[in-house]
TrEMBL record:
Keywords: Oxidoreductase. Transmembrane segments: none annotated. InterPro entries: NAD(P)-bd_dom_sf, SDR_oxidoreductase. Belongs to the short-chain dehydrogenases/reductases (SDR) family. Gene3D superfamilies: NAD(P)-binding Rossmann-like Domain. This is NAD(P)-binding protein. One of its GO terms (molecular function) is oxidoreductase activity.
Length: 93
């Protein structure tokens, strides 16, 4: 009988729960496929794409589609958990 090493796919591993889950899995001899904020950004992009498609499809019916997409803003959570993720981030601003 062949035993296989478990493989974990863990998102949001730059800090917090995801980070510690990845460390525990690795410490147990498991393999880890990790992403920092990929899932967050990809779902944000998906909502944007869906909104654009709906906007075009529904325009002929007089239905307007608006989506709110807040961008990056200067808050401590970007620095405290995963280090300086914004590169030239200035916490004094």
């Amino acid at each position: 009988m062949t035993t296989q090493t478990p493989v974990w796919f863990i998102t949001a591993t730059s800090s917090g729960f995801g980070y510690y889950t990845a460390l525990e899995a690795l410490a147990s001899g498991h393999h880890v496929i990790a992403s920092g904020r990929t899932l967050y950004y990809s779902t944000k992009w998906a909502v944007s794409g869906l909104s654009e498609a709906m906007r075009e499809e529904l325009a002929s019916f007089g239905i307007l589609i608006t989506d709110a997409e807040p961008g990056a803003f200067r808050k401590g959570f970007l620095v405290c958990g995963g280090g300086d993720l914004l590169g030239g981030y200035d916490s004094r601003v």
